[in-house]
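Hey,
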Amino acid sequence: MKALFRGSIALVALVAACSPPAKAADIAVPYKAPPLVTTGGVYVWADGSYQSVSLPTFDLGLKRVSLPNFPDVGPLHSFNPRATGYGIAGGIGYVSPNGTFASSFGSNVRVELDFSYVHANDSQSAVSPTHSFFPSLVSGIIFEPISFLPLPPSAISNLTTDYTAWQASLKAASDYKYRAFTLSPSVALFGGNTRNNQGLSQVISGFTEAYQSNSSLHWVDAGVKLGLDGKIDFATWLTVAVGGNVGVAYRDVSLAASDTVFLGGGPGINSAISATATTVPLLANAEASVTVRPWTLAAIKVFAGLNYDSRVPGISAPTFSGIPFAPPPAVHFVQGTPAGIKYEGETSYYAGGGVTVKFGGPVVAKN
């Protein structure tokens, strides 16, 4: 037995003598399998939404006047259009594999190309009695077809609005995650093309006077937005997020408008204007969403939000100081201030849902 023990000790010593010396790191750190990481990949998303678009006040057409000298005391009817309709949007993006960028850039660094389209319309009517009124053309011409009416007639006005907007953007974003909470900053370059067409018709019950106008406002935007989203993962399949963005744009605006006044069954008196202007609006957005992930590479989202625009283009009404009295059938023509481009701050709302699908690369081992 003692001989067998001595032989075992000698064998261990021989193996140790023939083996290379161990490094300190080999002794201190136990073996670890390479961590598994997911490579980046392409994703696409699409959504649809209900849109409620607030637009500047509209007050072309017949003017209320008072005695003496019939000064301009405002539009016969003023409208505050809020066009409602639908929006569709979509995008395609690419997520870089984690480790492509330094950790200071966050994780899931991605670039995304987005497109959106909104179409909304509105129809409003107003009826009111009136005693004294003058037609006011967009060119600024005001004239006095009548001075006094034997009975207070009813003025009936109808305004239609047709609004369309396109936008495209190129966005870069990343994530900074702490446990279940994630912050996602982003920056986006965008361009947009918006058109607002409006038509007004006014008639005076029991009389042959009538007014019609058509106006088209068109503006093109180019700008930049900075965004920040925060989200909490309540479960692997459920996320609640709140975020938004703020930005500025260079806006190029053009206006074309024409109108006609009909008096006494005649052919009508016409006028037309055109104008251009540029401005720099402040743009802001806020949105809340809930995302459900029923599958590994797909997510369904419902959302609601608002958009603020500090300088939405509208058409300003022509104005005049007054017209001296002229008994019928005399008519006085006065050149007042023509209609033009104005700006108003507006807040619009939306709500909808969408889906995102990711086409990721395979899961690989990172040494």
